[in-house]
Design a protein that fits this description.
Helix content is 0%, strand content 55%. With 119 residues, it is mainly β. The N and C termini lie far apart (40 Å).
């Protein structure tokens, strides 16, 4: 079993920055890839940024150049540095991990942390 706990959300003004963290615990050796997703009332859940199993990071077009994802395998943490935030970034941000053997990976989700970009 893998558990994920997010932190770092809050209220920030447009143009500001926030850093989100995700702490993984449990059977962390089984984590293959991790990423951040977000969901708002007006939109479906969307991928924000992921670190694939080979360590390559991928970003949604809407955040590329503004957000930076990083994973520390030794500390079992995943971070998301968010700069130049705008109101469209307002959402609940969820940490995701793909766990298990490569032949049968499954997803684990955290409960999320709210990011509110507003003046």
């Amino acid at each position: 079993q893998v558990q994920l706990v997010e932190s770092g959300g809050g209220l920030v003004q447009p143009g500001g920055s926030l850093r989100l963290s995700c702490q993984a615990s449990g059977a962390t050796y089984s984590i293959y890839a991790m990423g951040w997703y977000r969901q708002s009332p007006a939109k479906e859940r969307e991928m924000v940024a992921v670190v694939q199993g080979d360590g390559v990071a991928k970003y949604a077009a809407s955040v590329k150049g503004r957000f930076t994802i990083s994973r520390d395998k030794a500390k079992n943490t995943l971070s998301l540095q968010m700069d130049s935030l705008n109101p469209e970034d307002t959402a609940v941000y969820l940490c995701n991990a793909h766990v298990g053997p490569l032949s049968s990976l499954w997803s684990v989700w955290g409960k999320g942390t709210l990011v509110n970009v507003s003046s």
